[in-house]
Amino acid sequence: MIEAVGLTKRYGAKTAVYNLSFQVRPGTVTGFLGPNGSGKSTTMRMILGLDRPTAGRVTIGGHAFRDLPNAPRQVGALLDAKAVHGGRSARNHLLSLAQLSGIPASRVDEVLGVVGLQEVAKKRSKGFSLGMGQRLGIAAALLGDPQVLLFDEPVNGLDPEGILWVRNLMKMLASEGRTVFVSSHLMSEMALTAEHLIVIGRGQLLADMSVREFIAANSAGFARVRTPHTDPAQREKLTGVLTEAGGHVLPEQDGALRVTGLALPRIADLAHEADVRLWELAPHQASLEEAYMRMTQGAVDYRSTDDQLAGFAAQQGADGVLPGAQAAVPQEAPQQGWYAPPPPQPGVPHPGVPGPAPGAPGPVPLDQNPYARPVPPAQAPAPTPPAAAPATPPSLSKSDDTTPEDAR
Ligand SMILES: Nc1ncnc2c1ncn2[C@@H]1O[C@H](COP(=O)(O)OP(=O)(O)OP(=O)(O)O)[C@@H](O)[C@H]1O
């Protein structure tokens, strides 16, 4: 089991991870989600002893990574698939890792087979595609047959067959009782792979719950109702009836109606009583992506905007702006989904966030929280983070493999 308690990491003035407490349990795939720059890789590096926490601690099976005897036999990780000596063949890369950890060479050939790289085992890895590099990184993680596995974006660059393979591999590893912690931005894939989720935003815990609970907690149920498109009057009639009965009805883009506030049987009865035919009446199943977007919308640092060509147009229009062109407006305010519940507010605990772990610092007062912003968020400048902790040593980056180059 991986356990983080009050984990915090500051890089100078930048707080990458703040007061993070969670557990990653064996026997299940735990997804690690969060927007770009939310601190996932930093957290994984701290778990692996590659970065030292500014505060708090993280342990694997009760020990800090550095205190684990023969750690590569107990913990395997894919952090950066490019962190490979490109002049080395795939096999020699794995062999050098194996030799460092007392792993027999026969295991190298086993894992090359597991990841499907036997054919290119003697090729230099600098010629590998993104997906082949990922497979090599996964092979390295599996080398010591570890009980605890961390994967940072393992399906990055993989083709559909590779994605399916990784999904099944993760599930198989978990079914063998291993601890599998995997980060990804591919929500559809996470929904199929993970059972449990840890979601962070701006370095802080947003949710720690099962995928099912996460979707339920972050999406509002509604019914999709469709009347025959050949008779628009039926749609209008039904809208009136449902609204009168206390329902909230909004049109969908495809002509259906989105109804909240009324149970499905009630909608059916009301339609029947009003003599309106229904072509569709279905509960809406929110996807993990929808739920994730809802939960993290207030914690996104890097949000794209529409390219409205305002600057481009200004160069061309006689009065600075072409007809129809608008100045690009930064989307600072969180997007409000009209069907969704209100987004989580800073300082207000989300139902998915458990209480502090034993030994963890208590709730952080808003005025001490570097991320706390007055409500509504994003409309006032963020308070200055606390001063950098000078005690933090320089970041330990993944060290280069320094064993002598194998003869080819
Ligand atoms: N060595 C470092 N020095 C300074 N800042 C860093 C360092 N490593 C990470 N950061 C900062 O910490 C924050 C968290 O970065 P991190 O890479 O952990 O996020 P992430 O969730 O993994 O992002 P992504 O999904 O884009 O990979 C970012 O703002 C990043 O710029």
TrEMBL record:
Biased composition (Basic and acidic residues): 398-408
Residue ranges crossing the lipid bilayer per the database entry: none
InterPro entries reported for this sequence: AAA+_ATPase (IPR003593), ABC_transporter-like_ATP-bd (IPR003439), P-loop_NTPase (IPR027417)
GO terms for MF: ATP binding
Keyword tags: ATP-binding, Nucleotide-binding, Transport
Low complexity: compositionally biased ranges: 328-339
Region (Disordered): 328-408
Domain of life: Bacteria
Annotated Pro residues bias: 340-364, 373-393
Every ABC transporter domain range: 2-227
Family: Belongs to the ABC transporter superfamily.
PANTHER family named in the record: ABC TRANSPORTER, ATP-BINDING PROTEIN
Protein name: ABC transporter ATP-binding protein
Species per Swiss-Prot/TrEMBL record: Streptomyces cremeus
